[in-house]
Write a structure and sequence with these properties.
The chain is an alpha/beta fold. The protein has eight helices and ten strands. The structure holds adenosine-5'-diphosphate (ADP) and magnesium ion. This is ABC transporter ATP-binding protein.
Length: 238
């Protein structure tokens, strides 16, 4: 569970092709980072995988099944946004429970998953608060908690830490990496931050203008960048 394959996936907005035919394999349990400058198509690619945008061509396979036309809620993926998208009038517990209520998960199972997510994210003492009574880091944890309880086959993160200050970012980076080690679930993580990419990824996908410039482990990209763009972006000594 959690294997994602893109076959000649393209995306046009009107006449503009923002993603030319693109091929990519993401293995089960991998932590994959999409990195590249602003406007290169990172969010669009993630939204195509999530099903929040329709492809203009090509196929998206999830665990070997064609999911190109599958609605977002049926793809078994959970997206975490930088804006948190929490409901301000609901408690943390209700925010986390929301996707499970929508999916009709039985109450005792909801409670079990909330306890487990709250424990993993250090939110046990905050379940009865409203989002407005939390720090930025805690709000981001609630957003992650809401993804965890769906027990997705993959997590999709779109620049989840960009609203946090630098010190908090480092801590959250570690928390997300630890979560990945614990859950062993596929994570696709979008960022324009090279340090995040280099420290978190099993596999980095470097994008420029909707194209994949290079795919490799942080060490591979650092040691053998394919071109000057990758070298400059990753900060290789060459
Ligand atoms: P990134 O996340 O890497 O900053 P995006 O995926 O948001 O980049 O955008 C890639 C390109 O697609 C940009 O040129 C952007 O202006 C364009 N784009 C994104 N969404 C839309 C849209 N809904 N309509 C038209 N153009 C869009
Ligand atoms: Mg973006």
């Amino acid at each position: 569970m959690g294997r994602i394959t893109l076959e000649n996936v393209t995306k046009r907005f009107g006449d503009v092709e923002v993603i030319p035919p693109l091929n990519l394999d993401i293995n089960d349990g991998e932590f994959v980072v999409f990195v590249g400058p602003s406007g290169c198509g990172k969010s669009t690619l993630l939204r195509l995988i999530a099903g929040l945008e329709d492809t203009s061509g090509g196929r998206i396979l999830i665990d070997g099944q064609d999911a190109t036309s599958t609605p977002p809620a049926k793809r078994g993926l959970a997206m975490v946004f930088q804006s948190y998208a929490l409901y301000p009038h609901m408690s943390v517990r209700k925010n986390i429970a929301f996707p499970m209520r929508m999916a009709g998960v039985p109450q005792d199972e909801q409670d079990r998953r909330i306890e487990s997510a709250a424990k993993a994210l250090n939110l046990t003492n905050y379940l009865d608060r409203k989002p407005g009574q939390l720090s930025g880091g805690q709000r981001q944890r609630v957003a992650i908690g809401r993804a965890i309880v769906r027990e997705p086959s993959a997590f999709l993160f779109d620049e989840p830490l960009s609203n946090l200050d630098a010190a908090l970012r480092v801590g959250m980076r570690l928390e997300i990496s630890e979560l990945h080690n614990r859950l062993e679930t596929t994570m696709i993580y979008v960022t324009h931050d090279q340090v995040e990419a280099m420290t978190m990824a099993d596999k980095i996908v470097v994008l420029q203008a909707g194209r994949i410039e290079q795919v490799g482990s942080p060490m591979e990209l650092y040691r053998a960048p394919r071109n000057l763009f990758v070298a400059g972006f990753i900060g290789s000594p060459r």
